[in-house]
Amino acid sequence: MPWENNGGGGGRNNGGPWGQPPSGGGGPRKPGGGNTPSLEDILNRGRDRFQGGVPGGIPGGRWAIVGGILALVAFWGLNSVYTINPQEVGVELQFGKPKTELSMPGLHFLLWPIETVERVTVTENQTTIGSTSTGGRQSNDEGLMLSGDQNIVDLSFSVLWAVSDPSNYLFNVRDPEDMVTNAAESAMREVVGRRPAQDIFRDDRAGIAVEVQQITQTILDNYGMGVRVSQIAIENVAPPTEVADAFDEVQRAEQDEDRFQEEARSYANTLLGGARGKAAQMREDAAAYKNRVVQEATGQADRFDSIYAEYVNAPDVTRKRLFLETMEQVLAGSDKTIIENGQGGPGVVPYLPLPELKNNTVRNNSATSTGDTSTSGGN
């Protein structure tokens, strides 16, 4: 066999497969009785193996070595060429130290294993603190927090964050995601501990979210994490399960109070509007009455001025006219008839019951009119 010619052991298998004689067998020995081969023997045996084939008599050993080298080269190439996805950036390490340049999305090359690459996702991440279960009640104690007025609230919220400095994100903190969670939870507990429960439940959720975001960003910047917090979203706030029913009763009472106040304000506005309408109407009526009285007084004054002008032109005629008009107005409703002396003639008695005669005349005229109407009806 081929390996029998490499050890110089004759035609017998005294040298083993690699030309080394078995323990206790014949073969070249060093002075002193040792059986360790010399450097020259090792080089000769190596040269023989490369020239004559691989051990065991397998033909084509040289091509197998070339194939192995090519496989190593291919393996090295696969590890030296890498791809960065669109939502990622790469941080190349040279002897474990990060480079300042970042690898943008695309195909890149490095000298492996001297250089390696770490990939970081730069899209926005969402971390939820305080998981919720069916019915909006939280299933663990992670979201239980003590408010400023000594009430316990069960709160869940989300932190939206993204990587702003990949190198700091990878190497400044051991577990960045856990650090974001702890920082946001600590900030939320700090803010809730300073606020009354009513602010958290309803009154000032937006202000609490903004304050928590600022405190969280400050904590992460102090650690140099290379993370930017974009938003804190408070998703659910509820009382603990043990006092949920009592809290719901309080909430319903507060809602009833608000409803009653709204109804009272609406009723007050209705009454006030009616009163204001009536007041406006009274003001308009008073203004109209004022305008009418003023206009009448103005008309009378103008009439007096016109009469006075005529009086100045003809005083006697005007005085007599005024006297007659005045007497006509005064005596128009009187039942007496006055006859001046010398105006009635010789056949006029100075006094006659003219009012009675007048009344009789009116009654006779009425009866006559009634009789004529009846006759006409009979015909």
Describe this structure in words.
By secondary structure, this protein is α+β, with helices and mostly antiparallel strands. It has 4 domains: 1-21 and 29-59, no CATH class; 78-121; 125-238, 2-Layer Sandwich (Tetrahydropterin Synthase, Chain A), CATH 3.30.479; 243-329, no CATH class. The protein contains 9 helices and 9 strands. Strands 6, 7, 8 and 9 form a 4-stranded antiparallel beta sheet that branches. Strand 7 and strand 8 form a beta hairpin. Helix 4 (176-194) crosses helix 6.
* Main sheet attributes: strand count, strand direction, barrel closure: 4 strands, antiparallel
Helix-strand sequence: HHEEEEEEEEHHHHEHHH
**Helix/strand structural class:** alpha+beta
Q: Summarize the amount of helix as a percent range.
A: 40-55%
CATH-level-4 superfamily name of the largest domain: Band 7 domain
The name of the CATH topology of the largest domain is Tetrahydropterin Synthase, Chain A
The total beta strand count reads 9
Q: Beta fraction of the residues?
A: 15-25%
Shape designation: rod-shaped
Domains (count): 4
Mean of the pLDDT scores?
74
CATH hierarchy class name of the largest domain: Alpha Beta
Provide the CATH architecture of the largest domain.
2-Layer Sandwich
Instruction: Give start-end ranges of low-pLDDT stretches.
Output: 1-33, 53-58, 133-139
Number of helices: 9
End-to-end separation: 173 Å
Radius of gyration over all CA atoms, rounded:
62 Å
Short key terms for the protein model shown above:
379 residues; alpha+beta; Tetrahydropterin Synthase, Chain A; 4 domains; 4-stranded antiparallel beta sheet; 3-stranded antiparallel beta sheet; 9 helices; 9 strands; rod-shaped
